[in-house]
Automatic annotation (TrEMBL):
<keyword id="KW-0808">Transferase</keyword>
<dbReference type="InterPro" id="IPR016181">
    <property type="entry name" value="Acyl_CoA_acyltransferase"/>
</dbReference>
<feature type="domain" description="N-acetyltransferase">
    <location>
        <begin position="1"/>
        <end position="146"/>
    </location>
</feature>
<dbReference type="GO" id="GO:0016747">
    <property type="term" value="F:acyltransferase activity, transferring groups other than amino-acyl groups"/>
</dbReference>
<keyword id="KW-0012">Acyltransferase</keyword>
<dbReference type="InterPro" id="IPR000182">
    <property type="entry name" value="GNAT_dom"/>
</dbReference>
<protein>
    <submittedName>
        <fullName>Acetyltransferase</fullName>
    </submittedName>
</protein>
<dbReference type="Pfam" id="PF00583">
    <property type="entry name" value="Acetyltransf_1"/>
</dbReference>
<dbReference type="InterPro" id="IPR050832">
    <property type="entry name" value="Bact_Acetyltransf"/>
</dbReference>
Length: 146
């Protein structure tokens, strides 16, 4: 398996997986919207996307967004998206992407990586916990939908 940072030349593959990711989270299929969104992220550099590939092609991705911890006075990363295509699940792709995200966060001097997942996504929760992620017991997180 090969993990690499996505570039604009990967746009079609990333957009396809991103659309599948959104469908997994019960959003309507929107291939053009997915392509536009990913193209904007890659063009502006306001996120970092890592791709996992094997002999089948690109089979997974993770997308990280930068943020900061005021208390820690350091950079932090939000692991907003992690997706592995159905045919590649169970082969260690998700774990390899988590390892790459962790290494990248360390290289950038980040204090932490945070993520969210659906409470019923047991597979993802097991993967995250196996890789050292713990449910936050210190702060309550709130969201204002606009």
């Amino acid at each position: 398996m090969n993990i690499k940072k996505a570039t604009l030349s990967d746009l079609e593959s990333v957009a396809h997986l991103f659309n599948e990711y959104r469908i997994f989270y019960k959003q309507p299929s929107n291939p053009e919207g997915a392509k536009t969104f990913i193209q904007e992220r890659l063009t502006t550099g306001d996120s970092v996307i890592f791709l996992a590939g094997d002999d089948r092609g690109i089979v997974g991705f993770t997308q990280l967004y930068p943020t900061f911890t005021s208390i820690g006075m350091k950079k932090a990363w939000i692991l907003n998206d992690l997706y592995v295509s159905e045919e590649a699940r169970g082969a260690g792709v998700g774990e390899a992407l988590l390892h790459k995200a962790r290494a990248f966060a360390g290289e950038t001097g980040a204090a932490s990586i945070c993520l969210s997942t659906a409470p019923d996504n047991e597979t993802a929760r097991r993967l995250y916990e196996k890789n050292g992620y713990r449910q936050d017991q210190t702060f309550l997180h709130y969201e204002l939908e606009l």
